[in-house]
Amino acid sequence: MLVVTNIQDGEVVTHRLCLLRVVGTQPEATCGAIHNQSDNSRNGTLWKIYNGGFNALVPLVDGKNYLRIICGTEEASIQVEYRPLKIPRFIRLVYITCLNEEKFQGPHSMERSPNTAVRKIQTGALILQTFVAETLAAEGLGRRTFCFELDKEGNPIVHVVQLPLTIKEAHKFTEERLWETAALQILSSHLADKNCKYVAFFCGTRFSNPDKLNVKHEAEIMELTKGHVSLGGGGLALVGTGALYSWATNVEDVMEAMRDNTPVDTNSLLDFSGGRGTWGACYGTHLGSVLHELAHTLDLGHTPHGIMARGFEDLHVFFTTTKLTSDYLPQSPHHSAIMRQSMSSSLIKESVTFTTDFVRKIPLDNINMTVEPPKEPIASSGVYSPPIFTRRYPNRRDSDASPGSPLAQEDSISSQMPKNACSRPLLNAPSPNLSTHFSNNNKFSEVDGSKCRAFWARSSAVILAFHKWLNEVTHGEPPELKGSVVCSTAGIRVVELRDMHTMAFHHWEFVTRPPPPVLHLPWAQVPHWPPDTHIEVVAQDTQGNLLKGCFVPRPL
């Protein structure tokens, strides 16, 4: 019996690309078909079956979509309504070129023009939009997601902007200076808009290995790469295009691209796979890193596990596996030297500050947060986070629910400060051996479910769920902190405590009950304190207004 495990009949979604996880296929079946009977412009699409099920990405049309699922002699149907979110705030996509270079790097036989880059970015953007909706729904927070600037066909618009630099000149820039140059170029153009968050892709990333060295570790890879950038904060996320070659150009090709086990030829191509060495892992890691940086612009920071740690590297696992399992690290990051070391990465930097009027501020490095499952009457957290997809859906048998995802670790993103300010140095913990990390932890059979670290730590999910870029809300004043009391007329949804390095170590949430307008912070509920003399209090209300950067002495 064919069963869709992740979405219910009649659900309303705000994203165009619908993910269906289908289980219960016949043993002898090799593929399933899904036809959107409401879309006359498309034929049915075939999807390969793995271990008794398959995942499909189905483009939706405005309004009700009647999806017919066929596998062998079995049939099922589901109705999904696509209702685009109508809010003034959106994500604007930009492809950045140089004076003498427009192509991204890839195999010589591949079409690498800006038009191809735009199509790959459009497809990847739709996937990220779907991921956010699916993971927030799995956390019991509703199928919410951000929206893009769309063309008449409903596809995300990708603007092409040229820097006043040659690619050789750009390669002399630090990541921070390249980020600032891109920001100034965008804000001095017609693209400047206070209602935008920008995700920009720099075409000039170039990997060169003329001596054909056997490179395995990310530090070695980065030494051979020019124009790599991965910075996000405030209003702009800027990423390189070193692994854009591995991205699918069309939605129909996404699943196969993410499953692609073709080895990366490190003689000529950037291996952005997190030590796994395949095109599919490059796709997942690179696209996941875009989401990671975009999330920084949406006020998220790093976590001990999940997308905002190193979990973004498993984005392809999330989409290609029908059965997911999860592991967590049930210990405080402040009490684990091994964990702190494993969070360091040469691919991850500290956050930058960016506003639409380009008023510089001293950033608080990077916002980080930690989590735990919701409890009544107040959800109070350590670093443990529950697996997604394991929670029960209403009116669904336990056997119909698909299982969930798991852990990760990482470091920060580099900070742009005023010229007379001192930057905080990067953590000097050694970078992990990612090849060893993945060979030890990611050899598993999909029969019992695949481990996947692509999920949101709980408080990250709560912040996203009430974020202004994901909801239709009115403007209001941010919450206030007066001593140990947080106040907001709109009602408080989440409060986080972060250490001086912006790593959150505790949070309270008010999701399943009316949000209080006043909260006396219950310090006694915090089981572990960092050694810092001061802590940061971060609070968000129902309207998405956010209090950040408020440091108080650590309670005795």
Mind sketching the topology for me?
Blueprint: E1 3-4, E2 11-13, E3 17-23, E4 31-36, E5 45-48, E6 53-59, E7 63-71, E8 74-82, E9 90-97, H1 114-138, E10 158-162, H2 167-170, H3 175-187, E11 196-202, E12 206-207, H4 218-223, E13 225-226, E14 230-233, E15 236-240, H5 254-258, H6 279-297, H7 315-320, E16 324-325, H8 337-342, E17 379-380, H9 434-441, E18 450-451, H10 458-465, E19 480-482, E20 485-487, E21 492-498, E22 504-509, E23 518-520, E24 534-541, E25 546-553
Describe this structure in words.
There is one protein chain. With 556 residues, this protein is α+β, with helices and mostly antiparallel strands. It has three domains: 3-82, Immunoglobulins (Immunoglobulin-like); 90-441 and 449-465, no CATH class; 477-553, Immunoglobulin-like (Sandwich). It is built from ten helices and 25 strands. The strands form seven sheets. Strands 2-8-7-4-5 form a five-stranded mixed β-sheet, with no helix packed on it.
